[in-house]
Every structure is written in structure tokens, then in C-alpha cells.
Design goal:
The complex is a heterodimer of chains A (about 450) and B (about 400). Helices cover about 15% and strands about 35% of the residues of chain A. Chain A is mainly β and about 450 residues long. In chain A, the strands form 4 sheets. In chain A, strands 3, 4, 5, 6, 7, 8, 9, 10, 11, 12 and 13 form an 11-stranded antiparallel beta sheet that branches. Chain A is elongated and about 105 Å long. Chain A starts with 6 loop residues before the first helix and ends with a strand. Chain B is mainly beta and about 400 residues long. The chains are: A mainly beta (about 450), B mainly beta (about 400). Chains A and B meet through helix 1, helix 2, strand 1, strand 17 and helix 6 of A and helix 1, strand 2, strand 3, strand 4 and strand 5 of B.
């Protein structure tokens, strides 16, 4: 058949399937290179052609309603934090706070000292845990007393910081010292020679009390460390576990050359180690809190709210006017920040907590729910410390996810309050605290929302 | 058997290329925010080197999309498989600043072949229009003095998958029609990274569209004279829209916007003269955009015109007249804008030149062209685009209908 045009020239040329295939492959790979070749930078030319359909606004004029609540003691079950807290601290914010540390001793089949041994002395080793609450400049006095009854958990199987046991009024030993909790060389000896000698004699004579756990526990019962607050104003922490808070009995053998020996008796079960705290709020802003069922509004507590570990005081913050924002038509909340400021002079002696976390709770304050982020973790505050402009020191919390989850039904329940809290372990084992300034706009909710 | 394998291979390649074209960026220009975006036009390959001229020219070694009647020029022995790509450098300038970028992508895939002495067909896939922009602005957070970066992006466009046919009625007259399925989606998005929000407006469009063409030609002595006419009717596009807003807490679908999109009625006419391997042509096209309204407050439409002229001639030297000759082309084009932004038109001017290089031992050709031009103006707060575009067109031709000499 005859073709038209150039076909005449081509009739003798072989058709070439291989070339087609090769060309197709070349093109296929060429396309991959070309389509990844587009470079589109960031432009602003042409910006004036666009009608924006969205508007972003920020508002932070919501009224904050703040009060101090008390967490139910059920939540304050003692945590074996392995720190014994002893001392008293008093200031105008949280009144007078006192702590006594309870513990007992562990039974072992003790090595009987040689019958010719002679008692030298006995002392408890006290090692700083580096925690302290208050002013470490004044002379501190610590006494150790023997308990009149054994340490046993109360109903529920826990010890609470309000639990206490009777102890004999005479002290077994006294230690006076200038506290230096942050020093590295930090072991102190609290001598209990009379008691130690008695125990030493029982060991040499292999008496009943040291031959069975039950008898030993009944003989020892337990101890409590108590401070004398006449001069000092601090609560100190000491390590309390089976390698610290040891009773050491020093003796020497009486045969030939006197050889110094030591018998160690370790601290008992960590479940029996706890701190008993009590406070006196007379003259302090929270004075009326107990009489008011454990909740006191900030306008009745000198425009302040309080957070304190071991006592379970937590500030509760509500924003009743947040609902008004939701009435403003089609909108979405992009970011919500809670910003709080500590009372300016309240952290001169006692430091600000490094970590504050958020919870919500039921009205009986015995069931807490974590306030969480997008990624499922509990919201914690970011502390900004400004040494120069102290009123710029604040904690900021991102509660975007929380606020958005509250308004999914189209309205916001203004009874929902956010509790500021310490982490669970610090709450039950330290006296860390925060005094919140609740005057105008020092407790702020800043919301960025998009309308469209 | 071999032919089937070839066909299969070519179809596979076409599909792959189409998918690639769909996912790439066809254009970048803030002017493409209006309506259907930047309208591509119907010139491809060699036409591009001639300022887009082709209404009166016949397809021979390439598929001339400018006029469906041109398919009659396709040789009976040859099937054409054509693919095109481009790389464009654009410099944007306002009265105060200047920015630039490079953009490249595949553009089209076409095939054409003769079915019988009087009927030729072509089919393919090419862009009709494209949208592309990525612009940052500074917006204020209401109620504060703070500002943030807000980004407007757009992409998408309308594509055409077409089947065309040309019938040679008499020796001098061909008529043709392209039936195209226009489809695509256009996305406009407004977003902020810092505040994690995005308002996204996606419109999906589709419809069938027909373009008609006619070519009348006659010869006097050595010269061939051609007259081409084209016509495309106004067509409303069926649209569906989904507008959503996405923030950190999830995506909400908003009430759909309903946009009206349409393609305008277009008339085209062209004349051309040929002698041996020399060709020259002039095109004129008019699109009636006046009846089509845009939603944007700043922009309005007017009827637009396009004029172009182009010349093609072979290299001199001993290859002239053979399958190995190189063909040179040049041309110029003016497109009056259909867009009036703040009552100011956005006009397009370009000059082009290019060449067609045959591939050795083979009857396929690679056509290269370079277009240099400008679009828009710096007046009235608008901007001007100065661009240089490199177009590549591979025209793979294959002898389907010849028997091997040794078989």
C-alpha cells in the first residue's frame, strides 16, 4: 500500500520495536526526574489578590474564680519516699508546719558479740537527703523518742500523714547542729548510748528479745525523730532506707589488743517509715478552711490560693465566662493557655515548685483525673523565672486539648475547675508549695480562636 | 504479536505518564487563583516554537492539537506517540520587589494514526488549565499587636482526555472534531503552621467538551495554501465542592460553596503558506469570556484575543530533504488577557524559537523550543512575570503498517 508524504521514503526501513521500548523506558525514568524538579519557594508577591476567609483573634479577659481546696486524705496515703522529714517552719503564708519522722528497725539473726566485748557507744546515722523546707541558718535540735506502741498501718493498709503513734516523753538522744543539707559530706550521728547499751547487753546475753522477730519488734516498738523549734525554722529531710538511718553499736573486744567492732541494725520496713505532719493556720490566710469544709474562696483568703504537699491544699481555678466566647458563631479554639503568677514575696525562702501538673476532680476531692495534652500526657507547667522583673515570673500551661474536649458538646460546663497540683509522689512526700496571686489578671486564660 | 506488545507497552506508558502529570504542578502564578487558573491553550510541540501557531497547519510528524481537522495530515504508515514536558523559569516583579522560581513537569501524552484513507484519529491527555501558587502574608492576631504568617496555596486544574477524528471529505477539505472529557479539581487553601489551622476549599469539575475544526487547502505551482477554522462552544462545568477547616482538634466539614465554572465560546482562524519544507502561518483566536463571571471582588472578565505568527524551515546542507534534516522554527505571540484585575488587563507577549532533531537511525524526532516572554504588569499594585520556558517534545513514530522485508 502506498502511503502519503514522507512515508514513501520510509518504506524500506525496518520497523523497530526495540527502539520503541528503549525510548519508553527512557521517558519513564525521565518523568520521575522531571516531576520532582519543581521548586516552589516561599512567595509573597500576589498577596494582595486574596480575600481572607478566616480571622484569628486572641482574648484573655475571662474572669477567673479561684479557691483553695483540700484533697481527701484517701489520696494522701503516705508514700514510702525514703525521706524522713523533721522540723518546723513558720511563715505568714501557710502558718506553722511541723513534721515528725517515724520508723522502726529490721530484725536479723544478729551476730552475737564476743562475751568479752565492751560497749563503747551507740548512734543513729543521719544522712541528708538534700531536701529542706525553710531557713537553714539557725541552730537545729533533733531528739529521738521511743514509741509506746508498734507502727502498724491503719484501716485500708496505709499510713497517712495524719497518723501518729504515742511515744515516751523522754528522749533517747539529742543532736544539735547547724543544718547544711546540700553538703556532700553529710552524715551526722545522733547518740543514743543508754538505749544502745541495753540492747548490747541483750545481744551478749542472747536474751529472748533478740532471738525472734516478734519479740524484737515488741521490744523496739519504733522511733520518732522530733525537732525542738525554739530556735530553728526549717524542716530537714534525711535518707530513710535500709542503707541509711542505721543504728550503729560500737564496742571493742577485751582480749589482748582492743579491737574496735561495730554492729549495724538497719531501718525496718519502708512501709513503716512515714512522716507525721501537722499545721496551725491561725493568723494565716487559710485559717477558715477547715471550718469551711476544706474549701476556701480566694476572696476569703487574702486574694491568694495555696498549693502544699502533705497537707493536700490545691488551688482550683474556674472560668465561668468562657461560655460567652462559644456563642460567637462559627469558630474553633486553636490554643488555650492558663497563665498563673506566684505571690511575689512568697518564694524568697522556700523555692517555687519546679513542676506543677493539672487535674480535674469530683466535688468530694477524692477522685482526680489528669488534664491531658494531645499526645496523651498530663499537662505540666512551664516555669518562666524573671529575676529582674519578678512580676514576669509565671507558670504557663497549654490546656488547648482540655478546653476543646470540654466544648465538644457545644457548651462549656463552668463548674469544671482545674486543680494545680504537684506530681503524685511529691504531693505525698514533700512540703513543696506555691502561693498563687489571685488579684486582677494574675490568673489568666488566654484563648486564640479562629472564626470563619 | 509484536504489535500487540507495542500497543500494550504504549498504553502502559501513557497511563503512567497521565498519573504523573496529574500529580505534578502544571503552573505557578498568583494570577491562577481566578476561575479555572491559567488557560493552557492548544498548541504543543513544534507549534510552541512557532509562537503557538497551528490552526492552519496540518499534523505531519506530530499531532497538531490546534485544529482537529489537521489530523488528516498524519502519514498512513506511521503511528505517532508524542509526549511533552517543560521547564520554566519565572521572575515575578512588582514595583518594589522581585522573586523567582523554576517549575518543571510533564505536560501531555498524545497518539495519532490513520485508520483508513479518509479517517485519522488521535487521542491523548493534556492540560486545559492549571492552578498553582504558594504565597505568604503577614496577618494580625486580632486583639493583640502580634502577627503571624498566613499562607495561601492553590493547586490543581482542569485536564482533558480526548479522542479526536478527522475526515478528509474531498482532496482539499478536511473536517475534524475533538471530543474531550474535561475533569479535574482545584484546591484553594488558607493556613497557618504556627497556629495549626487550614481552611481548604476543593472543587471537583467535569464535563464533556467538543471542539470542531476545518481545513481547506490548495496548491498553486510549488506553493500550498491553507485556511483553518476552529470553534468551541461555551460549556458550563459540573462542579461539586468540599470545604473543610482543620485545626489541632480535628477536621470539620463546612457548608459547601457553590462555584460556577465555565469555558468560553472560542473562534479561531488561521492561514498558512508552504513550499517544500518551508512553512509560515498566522493564527487568530477569540474567546468570549465576557459572559462568565468570577466570584472574586477584584477581578472581572472581558473577551480575549490571541494573535500569533510562526515560521518553519529546514537546515541547508546535504541532509536537506532527507529524514536526517534538522528543522528550525521561530515565532511570536500576543494574548490579550481575559482577566481584568482592578480594571487592569494581564497581557501576555512571547517570542519563541526552536528546532526539531531527528533521532539517528530512527524516524522519531525530538522537538525543542524556547519561549521568552512576559505576562502582566507592574501598575496598579499588580505584578509582572518574565519567563523563559524550555519545551521538550518527543515524537516517537513507529511504522505499524509495513511488513518486514524479510518476512
Amino acid at each position: 500500500m502506498k502511503g502519503t508524504g514522507e512515508g514513501k521514503l520510509m518504506r524500506q526501513i525496518y520497523s523497530s520495536p526495540k527502539i520503541s521500548a528503549i525510548m519508553s523506558v527512557v521517558l519513564l525514568s525521565g518523568t520521575l526526574i522531571i516531576s520532582s524538579c519543581t521548586k516552589i519557594g516561599e512567595f509573597n508577591i500576589g498577596a494582595n489578590f486574596f480575600d481572607s476567609k478566616t480571622n484569628l483573634a486572641a482574648v484573655d479577659t475571662f474572669t477567673a474564680k479561684v479557691s483553695t481546696a483540700t484533697l481527701d486524705t484517701v489520696l494522701m496515703a503516705s508514700l514510702s519516699s525514703k525521706v524522713a522529714l523533721v522540723g518546723t517552719y513558720n511563715d505568714k503564708y501557710l502558718g506553722y508546719v511541723n513534721s515528725e519522722a517515724y520508723f522502726d528497725l529490721a530484725y536479723e539473726s544478729f551476730t552475737k558479740p564476743d562475751s568479752h566485748s565492751v560497749f563503747d557507744s551507740a548512734a543513729f546515722d543521719l544522712v541528708y537527703s538534700k531536701y529542706y523546707y525553710g531557713d537553714t541558718t539557725a541552730l537545729m535540735t533533733i531528739n529521738i523518742h521511743q514509741l509506746k506502741e508498734q507502727i502498724a498501718p491503719v484501716t485500708g493498709g496505709s499510713l497517712y500523714n495524719i497518723t501518729h503513734f504515742d511515744y515516751s516523753p523522754e528522749s533517747l538522744g539529742t543532736l544539735k547542729f547547724y543544718p547544711n543539707p546540700t553538703s556532700s559530706d553529710s552524715t551526722m550521728r545522733l547518740h543514743v548510748d543508754a538505749f544502745g547499751e541495753d540492747l548490747f547487753n541483750k545481744l551478749i546475753n542472747n536474751e529472748d528479745e533478740i532471738r525472734s522477730e516478734e519479740w524484737f519488734a515488741d521490744y523496739i516498738k519504733g522511733f520518732v525523730l522530733v525537732s525542738d523549734s525554739s530556735q530553728s525554722n526549717v524542716v530537714l529531710g534525711f535518707k530513710a532506707d535500709d542503707s541509711h538511718l542505721i543504728l550503729k553499736i560500737y564496742y571493742h573486744t577485751d582480749t589482748g589488743e582492743a579491737e574496735k567492732q561495730e554492729l549495724d541494725i538497719k531501718m525496718g520496713s519502708t512501709e513503716h517509715q512515714f512522716n507525721h505532719v501537722k499545721n496551725n493556720l491561725t493568723g494565716a490566710p487559710l485559717e477558715a478552711i477547715k471550718a469551711n469544709d476544706g474549701v476556701l474562696s480566694s476572696d476569703k483568703s487574702d486574694n491568694k490560693a495555696f498549693l502544699q504537699g502533705l497537707f493536700g491544699y490545691v488551688p482550683k481555678i474556674q472560668f465561668p465566662t468562657l461560655e460567652d466566647l462559644l456563642m460567637s458563631g462559627q469558630m474553633k479554639i486553636l490554643k488555650a493557655e492558663l497563665i498563673i503568677e506566684p505571690e511575689i514575696d512568697s518564694y524568697e525562702i522556700v523555692d517555687l515548685p519546679s513542676n506543677i501538673v493539672l487535674y480535674t476532680s469530683n466535688l468530694a476531692y477524692n477522685n482526680l483525673t489528669q488534664v491531658k495534652n494531645d499526645n496523651g500526657y498530663q499537662v505540666t507547667g512551664t516555669l518562666t523565672k524573671d529575676k529582674v522583673y519578678r512580676d514576669l515570673t509565671n507558670y504557663t500551661f497549654d490546656i488547648t486539648h482540655f478546653i476543646n474536649s470540654q466544648i465538644t458538646n457545644g457548651y462549656f460546663d463552668s463548674r469544671v475547675g482545674i486543680l494545680l497540683c504537684l506530681s503524685s509522689d511529691k504531693l505525698r512526700s514533700t512540703l513543696d508549695r506555691l502561693v498563687l496571686d489571685c488579684t486582677n489578671s494574675h490568673v489568666k486564660l488566654r484563648v486564640y480562636y479562629l472564626s470563619y | 504479536m509484536q504489535r500487540l506488545a507495542k500497543i500494550f507497552f504504549l498504553i502502559l506508558t501513557s497511563v503512567f505518564l497521565q498519573v504523573n502529570i496529574l500529580s505534578g504542578q502544571g503552573t505557578y502564578s498568583p494570577y491562577s487563583v481566578y476561575g479555572l487558573g491559567s488557560i493552557e491553550g492548544n498548541s504543543i510541540g513544534p507549534s510552541k516554537a512557532m509562537g503557538g501557531t497551528g490552526i492552519a497547519l496540518m499534523s505531519d510528524r506530530y499531532v497538531n492539537m490546534s485544529n482537529p481537522a489537521s489530523y488528516s495530515g498524519i502519514d498512513s504508515l506511521v503511528s505517532i506517540f508524542e509526549i511533552g514536558a517543560f521547564a520554566k523559569y519565572t521572575s515575578f516583579s512588582t514595583s518594589r520587589e522581585q522573586q523567582s522560581l523554576v517549575n518543571a513537569n510533564l505536560k501531555y501524552v498524545l497518539m495519532g494514526f490513520r485508520v483508513s484513507p479518509w479517517l485519522t484519529t488521535s487521542f491523548g491527555f493534556a492540560p486545559y488549565s492549571s492552578v498553582g501558587y504558594n504565597i505568604n502574608t503577614t496577618a494580625q492576631v486580632d486583639g493583640t499587636l502580634a502577627t503571624y504568617k498566613k499562607t495561601y496555596t492553590g493547586d490543581g486544574g482542569v485536564n482533558q482526555a480526548f479522542v479526536g477524528g478527522a475526515v478528509q471529505i474531498f482532496k482539499n477539505l478536511s473536517v475534524g472534531v475533538n471530543a474531550a472529557y474535561l475533569f479535574g479539581n482545584i484546591t484553594h487553601e488558607e493556613s497557618s503552621d504556627v497556629f495549626s489551622f487550614a481552611l481548604k476549599d476543593v472543587t471537583t469539575l467535569s464535563n464533556l467538551d467538543f471542539r470542531y475544526g476545518l481545513n481547506y487547502h490548495f496548491a498553486v505551482k510549488d506553493f500550498g495554501y491553507y485556511l483553518g477554522l476552529t470553534y468551541e462552544n461555551q460549556k458550563k462545568l459540573r462542579t461539586s465542592n468540599e470545604t473543610t477547616i482543620t485545626t489541632g482538634s480535628g477536621t470539620t466539614t463546612l457548608e459547601d460553596n457553590y462555584y460556577k465554572f465555565a469555558i468560553p465560546r472560542t473562534y479561531g482562524a488561521g492561514v498558512a503558506v508552504t513550499k517544500n519544507f518551508f512553512k509560515a502561518g498566522i493564527d487568530y483566536e477569540r474567546s468570549l469570556w465576557k459572559d462568565i463571571r468570577f466570584k472574586n471582588s477584584e477581578a472581572s472578565t472581558r473577551n480575549s484575543d490571541r494573535i500569533s505568527l510562526g515560521v518553519e524551515f529546514p537546515s541547508q546542507g546535504y541532509n536537506k530533504g532527507t529524514g536526517k534534516m534538522i528543522i528550525y522554527r521561530f515565532g511570536a505571540e500576543y494574548r490579550g488577557s481575559y482577566l481584568l484585575i482592578k480594571d487592569t488587563p494581564v497581557n501576555y507577549y512571547a517570542v519563541s524559537l526552536g528546532a526539531g532533531f531527528p533521532l539517528r537511525r530512527n524516524i522519531s524526532i525530538i522537538n525543542v523550543s524556547l519561549e521568552v516572554g512576559q505576562n502582566g504588569t507592574r501598575e496598579k499594585g499588580l505584578f509582572r512575570e518574565n519567563f523563559v520556558t524550555l519545551n521538550l517534545d518527543f515524537s516517537l513514530r513507529d511504522l505499524w503498517f509495513i511488513k518486514r522485508l524479510y518476512e
